[in-house]
């Protein structure tokens, strides 16, 4: 497999980020031809989509435990700060 062929879906968020960093570094050199850069861009876009989906799924799972005045604990959905 050459360095510009799209890879299968990454096994993890961290693997996807590492691959994105490799693609960005390679594209920043400007040493690739246009076709290779387009393939890298396509792979990078797919990796960004993968990461976005992973982050959305994790955000849905995140809960903040809060202690009520009566001492009981409840789970509330994660709320992003403005």
Structure report:
With 82 residues, the protein is of the alpha+beta class. It has helices at 13-29, 34-61, and strands spanning 63-67, 73-77. The protein has one domain. The protein has 2 helices and 2 strands. Helix 1 (13-29) runs antiparallel to helix 2 (34-61). The mean pLDDT is 81.
In spatial order, strands of the major sheet run 1-2
Give the oligomeric state of the chains in this entry, treating copies of one chain as homo and distinct chains as hetero.
Answer: single chain
Chain-averaged pLDDT: 81
Radius of gyration: 19 Å
Number of strands: 2
Whole-number count of domains = 1
Number of helices: 2
**Share of helix among residues?**
40-55%
Q: How does the helix and strand content classify structurally?
A: alpha+beta
Task: Present the secondary structure layout.
Blueprint: H1 13-29, H2 34-61, E1 63-67, E2 73-77
Antiparallel strand pairs: 1-2
Helix pairs in contact: 1-2
Kindly summarize this structure in a few lines.
With 82 residues, the chain is α+β, with helices and mostly antiparallel strands. The protein has helices at residues 13-29, 34-61, and strands at 63-67, 73-77. A two-stranded antiparallel sheet has the order 1-2.
Features:
2 helices, 82 residues, 2 strands, 12% strand
């Amino acid at each position: 497999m050459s360095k510009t062929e799209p890879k299968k879906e990454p096994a993890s968020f961290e693997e996807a980020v590492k691959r994105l960093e490799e693609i960005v570094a390679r594209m920043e050199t400007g040493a690739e031809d246009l076709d290779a850069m387009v393939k890298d861009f396509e792979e990078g876009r797919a990796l960004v989509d993968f990461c976005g989906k992973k982050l959305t799924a994790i955000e849905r799972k995140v809960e903040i435990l809060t202690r009520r005045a009566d001492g009981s604990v409840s789970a509330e959905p994660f709320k992003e700060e403005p």
